[in-house]
Amino acid sequence: MRLARPLQLLIDQLQKLPSIGPKTAQRLALHILRLPREEARHLARAIVEVQEKVFPCSICGNLTDQDPCWICSNPGRAGDSLCIVEEASDIMSIERTGYNGKYYVLNRSFKLMDDIDPAEMDVESLSKILEQGQVQEVILALNPTIDGEVIARFLAAVINRHEVKVTRLAYGLPIGGDIEFADEITLRRALEGRKEF
Ligand SMILES: [Zn+2]
Question: Ligand 1 centre from 106 Cα, in Å?
Answer without folding.
Answer: 12
